[in-house]
TrEMBL record:
CDD domains: ligand_gated_channel (cd01347). It is a multi-pass membrane protein. Gene3D superfamilies: 3.55.50.30, TonB-dependent receptor, beta-barrel domain (2.40.170.20), TonB-dependent receptor, plug domain (2.170.130.10). Residues 71-122 form the Secretin/TonB short N-terminal domain. Transmembrane segments: none annotated. Keywords: Cell outer membrane, Ion transport, Iron, Iron transport, Membrane, Receptor, Signal, TonB box, Transmembrane, Transmembrane beta strand, Transport. Belongs to the TonB-dependent receptor family. It comes from the Bacteria. Pfam families: Plug (PF07715), STN (PF07660), TonB_dep_Rec_b-barrel (PF00593). It comes from Pseudomonas typographi. SUPFAM superfamilies: Porins. This is TonB-dependent siderophore receptor.
Length: 826
């Protein structure tokens, strides 16, 4: 049956919320009646339980055993890395089970009080000593996750607790540091090019912001980016949006679908969580230099290690300088960034990580679009060059300064309770001068109309998230309950100017006339406050995995006019107060053969800080999703296959035309589709990624306003939403012989057609792009620690249009770019 004709099962939101509320209330009652940690630990140690744990990576087997046995275990990922555990089937005490799992590993579990163990190397003779590397404790519920090449075993993005990807009842993808390096990712968006359900270039070759459209939803903002578990806190209604360079990241986790139950206001398409590089308790030093096409050059360094003999304090200092001429004439990118951090391990149970991020972007490169006539198809027999710059040299510029400071604190009270608090403050200043094109000056001339947009913005924001986690047993059920309260506050002062300039010939541009006819300036003070209280319970019952969540949000936005206008006198304030209850529920069954089918329901809520043409706040967006899928992780491997079917409905989606400074409602949007993904470590030498996406998105009941009037677009597809996408990437490292140390990588990305206008009268053609990489470990030639890597994106230099937001704004795809990186680790 075609998916467009398939009906989702209807469940009353009221009944669903009542059921979730009742279950979570039961969880709270269980928490209140918990046995004391000491009695719980004693009972766990004396208990004989039946276990059915598959053979596989040692770390994962130990983690699963600890959760089921109700014990605490302290270990390091380095101790278990690369080691396998035998299957554990039958009845065992905790000590017997640990001994069986550690058989042949060279490790032993040493008791440390009631029901607590420390993993140690087996003694030689009578000597027994703790490992010299830092010990990170984990109790029932914390993960001993690992990353192997492109494969990650766990993620925190869907639950705010470390959960195995194969046991998460929602679609989650992970981009590892290894993958970013191999593919030569220059931006966060580029790093996700091989992830299903994600369109990473909705605005073409610009690098100014990390636009990410997910499951067909693209609101023109970057409001779905999170950094170290906290919202990035830029203002998507302005030009002040925080951006992190991928060099400073350890991994990127992508959650598909609504996620308000843990994060508050969010997009229904999903969110992207960036994890920055953390201090290491073993010495690590790396420097690198990059040169490439389009005048690319850069230097980076990454230094980390302990600051004391006991390895209780560690630092990390990462820095980068980058410059590029870009593919567009007269447009440059410049960046200088520094990220210091310090980690303090007061004891096994208490840690604090202090972080700062300082970034100065003197030049923000190109950001603009051109008419469909001349890009999608020829105009007067000509097409506009992919290098064309419609602005004015010497006038155009984008300068951004952003500084943030924050911390991550964690304290484990006992084997049951753990508290965490994450905080970040952001200060951002943006200065913009941009000349952009808007349509042809006449039906026959080759001259483009040009307009000017100027901005001077200051943003201050802070966000804090407090969590109390409880891990306990009720009968055969293992619970990981999470109670949280988060608060965020943002203030943005914006001074905007606008005007018009003389037209420019798109095929033979002549620059030099920078005279601007100014319009009336505008100035606003924008404020946002949000408070959220959430409760989640993750339940393991035999082979079942259940996830239940509930959240209440209170949100206030205001927009105060600071310059007199005809419609709004100086001092006029428009404010909007909203509250919303959101929920999530999921169930997964884990078969012994590694197959795990699941079903989940989730909601999103995003009160609009946007205003319409009259300055009135738009109604909040509300999204709901049903998702069913299956995951498969072959026993004994970290390989993961995922297939999911989803249906998302969103009310009151907001849209902004590029030449306007206000937003418009576009009614209801329905998105449904299929996503498939594979992460494979086939051999020690061969890594493979594969994905396929089918997205059927349409206006379910919409009236989309345009500059030409009001058009009924019901049944049409939104722009910038390809129906099909597919990709595959392979990386092979030669293991022996004269070519040992050589690495070869290559990938193919296919993006199907999309619509150039909301009326669906013109298509943006499909395109296929090829990427390649070549690396060599110079240690094979005696240069220990030196590595060389070459990367090529769009290897065949395919000329294409990435997407169109309308017939007036189409975005040039990224031309071929080459880069060479030399790194030295010491």
């Amino acid at each position: 049956m075609p998916m467009a004709n398939r009906r989702s099962p209807h469940i009353s939101p009221y009944r669903l919320r009542q059921a979730i509320h009742a279950t979570l209330l039961g969880t709270a009652v269980s928490l209140a009646n918990l046995a004391t940690p000491a009695s719980l630990a004693q009972a766990a140690e004396q208990a004989v339980q039946r276990y059915n744990i598959q053979a596989g990576p040692l770390g994962e087997a130990l983690n699963r055993f600890a959760r089921q046995a109700g014990i605490g275990l302290s270990a390091t990922p380095a101790q278990t890395s690369g080691k396998q555990a035998p299957a554990l089937q039958g009845q065992f005490t905790p000590s017997q089970g640990l001994q069986r799992l550690l058989q042949g590993s060279g490790l032993q579990a040493t008791p440390q009080g009631d029901s607590n163990y420390v993993l140690q190397a087996q003694p030689e003779g009578d000597a027994v000593s703790l490992p010299t590397t830092d010990i990170t404790g984990f109790s029932l519920g914390n993960a001993l996750g690992s990353v192997d090449g492109y494969n990650a075993t766990h993620s925190q993005i869907a639950t705010k607790t470390s959960t195995a990807l194969a046991q998460t009842s929602q679609s989650v993808s992970v981009v590892t540091r290894n993958q970013m390096d191999d593919q030569g990712s220059q931006t966060v968006a580029q790093a996700m090019r091989y992830t299903p359900g994600v369109l990473t270039n909705p605005y073409g070759a610009t690098h100014r912001y990390d636009y990410v459209a997910m499951r067909g939803f693209n609101d023109g903002s970057v409001d779905n980016i999170y950094i170290d578990g906290l919202k990035s806190m830029g203002d998507s209604g302005t030009y002040s949006t925080m951006q992190i360079d991928p060099y400073f990241l350890e991994r990127i986790d992508i959650l598909k679908g609504p996620s308000s139950v843990l994060y508050g206001r969010s997009s229904p398409g999903g969110l992207v969580a960036l994890t920055t590089k953390q201090p290491l308790f073993e010495p690590y030093h790396q420097v690198q230099a990059t040169v490439g096409s389009q005048g690319t050059r850069g230097l980076g360094f990454d230094l980390s290690g302990p600051l004391d003999d006991d390895k209780r304090i560690a630092y990390r200092l990462t820095g980068l300088t980058h410059r590029s001429d870009t593919q567009f004439d007269h447009a440059e990118e410049k960046r200088y960034t520094l990220a210091p951090s310090v980690a303090l391990r007061f004891n096994e149970d208490t840690s604090l990580t202090l972080q700062a991020y300082l970034q100065h972007d003197p030049q923000g490169g190109y950001h603009g679009g051109l008419p469909a006539a001349g890009t999608l198809h020829s105009r007067n027999g000509q097409r506009i060059s992919e290098h064309f710059f419609e602005g004015e040299p010497g006038l155009d510029g984008y300068k951004r300064d952003q500084q943030s400071v924050g911390y991550q604190f964690e304290h484990r009270f006992n084997d049951v309770f753990t508290a965490r608090q994450n905080f970040r403050y952001l200060d951002s200043r943006v200065k913009l001068d941009q000349v952009y094109a808007y349509g042809w000056a006449s039906p026959t001339r080759n001259a483009l109309n040009r307009y000017y947009s100027g901005a001077n913005e200051q943003l201050h924001s802070w966000i804090i998230d407090n969590m109390l986690q409880a891990e306990y047993l009720t009968g055969r059920a293992i619970h990981t309950a999470l109670l949280g309260v988060d608060y965020q506050r943002r203030k943005t002062v914006v001074d905007w100017t606008s005007g018009s300039l003389s037209p420019i010939d798109a095929f033979a541009p002549q620059y030099g006339d920078a005279t601007i006819s100014y319009y009336s300036p505008t100035s606003y003070l924008r404020r946002l406050q949000q408070t959220g209280v959430y409760l989640q319970d993750l339940i393991e019952l035999d082979q079942w995995r259940f996830s239940l969540g509930l959240r209440q949000d209170w949100m206030k936005t205001s927009d105060e006019n600071r310059v007199a206008e005809t419609s709004r006198p100086t001092g006029t304030r428009i404010s909007d107060d909203r509250s919303k209850l959101t929920s999530r529920a999921g169930a997964l069954y884990l078969f012994d053969n590694g197959i795990a089918p699941y079903i989940s329901y989730s909601e999103s809520f995003n009160p609009n800080s946007y205003s319409d043409a009259q300055g009135k706040p738009l109604a909040p967006t509300e999204g709901t999703q049903w998702e069913v899928g299956v995951k498969y992780q072959p026993p004994g491997t970290s390989n993961l296959f995922t297939a999911s079917l989803f249906r998302i409905e969103q009310e009151n989606l907001a849209s902004k035309l590029p030449q306007e400074n206000f937003y418009r409602p576009v009614g209801q949007v329905r998105s449904q589709g299929l996503e498939m993904e594979a992460h494979l470590q086939l051999t020690d030498a061969l890594k493979l990624l594969g994905s396929y996406t089918f997205t059927d998105i349409e206006y379910a009941k919409a009236m989309l306003s345009t500059v030409d009037g009001v058009t009924n677009n019901k049944g049409n597809s939104p722009t910038q939403a390809p129906r099909h996408m597919a990709s595959v990437w392979a990386d092979y490292a030669v293991q022996g012989g004269p070519l040992a140390g050589l690495r070869l990588g290559g990938g193919v990305r296919y993006v199907g057609y999309s619509w150039a206008d909301a009326e669906n009268t013109m298509k943006v053609p499909a395109y296929t792009l090829y990427d390649a990489s070549l690396g060599y470990d110079m240690g094979r030639l005696g240069l220990r620690g030196v590595d060389v890597r070459l990367n090529a994106n769009n290897l065949t230099n395919e000329k294409y249009i990435a997407t169109c937001a309308s017939l007036s704004y189409c975005y040039m795809g990224e031309a071929r770019n080459l880069s060479a990186t030399v790194s030295y680790q010491f």
